[in-house]
Write a structure and sequence with these properties.
Blueprint (H helix, E strand, L loop, with lengths): L20 E2 L5 E2 L6 E11 L5 E11 L3 E5 L6 H8 L7 E6 L2 E2 L4 H6 L1 E4 L11 H12 L3 H14 L15 H11 L7 E5 L7 H16 L3 E6 L2 H7 L2 E6 L2 E6 L1 H6 L4 E7 L13 H11 L8 E4 L3 E6 L2 H14 L4 E7 L3 H9 L15 H11 L5
Parallel strand pairs: 5-10, 5-11, 8-9, 9-10
Antiparallel strand pairs: 1-2, 3-4, 3-6, 6-7, 11-12, 13-15, 13-16, 14-15
Length: 384
Amino acid sequence: MSRRTNGHHPEESPDGEEANAVDGAGGTTGNRGKALSIETDGLQLIYSDGTEAVRDVSLSVPEGEFFGFLGANGAGKTTAIKVLATLLKPTNGEAFINGFDAESEPREIRESIGYMAQEIGIDEELTARENLQFACAAYGVPRGERSERIEELLALVDLAEVADQRSESFSGGMQKRLDAATALVHRPPLVFLDEPTTGLDPKARNRLWEYFREINEEGTTIFLTTQYLEEADQLCERISVLLDGEIVATGSPTELKRRVGGEILDIDIEAGAETEEGDGKDPRERAAAVASDSELFESEAMIETTEEGISVTSQRARSRGTDLLVALRDAGLTVTGFNVRAPTLDDVFLAITDGEEREPNKESDPDEEEADEARVATDGGESR
């Protein structure tokens, strides 16, 4: 068994320094001086039908980090996470998970990770306790440790009081929590969560967030895929934005928000308001034209129409906002509301992906699972 002991594919940190180095104990270290849970270089996956689902994915995730893959449906998140979990075999590139080589040591990787798929994987005919007992046996948890571990997990996911009820009677949120617990029975140092809160109501989603934070605070590395910008913002220390199987941006939520280029001025315009010119233009379009022609903002400022009016993203949004309101009034437009705010990850995602749309990838999702499994068999990948 060969463990990864050096970082021969260094990434550059935001400061321009190499992200990976070799620590004194011989383990690969990341951009914060920590050993790496995940290290990939040039990962690519091409299906037999020619679909390039993962494109040149290179990343480093230090131990203990809460890391996120953010992207819309079809961006390649599920395919990428299955490659990392050794459920799909890449066409090209390298991946080291917990120090093990994905090419030659997939078994060792699977024994050292937890994996929570999009689809709930529990047996609804079994009780919560029986599902965890089955998971303990599957992961090889020593018999003498199983009872205590099961009780710990039932308490963690707040299912102790219903431990002996069949899980078919559970709500969707309760089933998701039980599913998460089954991925943790062997105390893996790294857990993959593939869109774990999809379909849950806000209350159930927030409860799962609490459990994920708790296990991360205990030292577990978490790799999360999500299409919810709020989820990535709330949970992740760093995020990679994925577009058509390719990483187009990586950074902390704060760093990514800085890329938007300033604050955002949202202005609501009264619908049907007439301009002095009486040209019949949509009031929102006229307002956007006034903002563009005013020369109040730098040339890089982004001015867009919205459902309510216009949005101006600019370094001068706060200092010149009142001047724009005056210009709009002088143009005969009625302002019904305005707000200056910091950018959100929604703004980041739209800014990064704007104008970069390509033909969607045929990523595995709950509606295409059979097609995905067929591709796995055809391409020689491995499935659970």
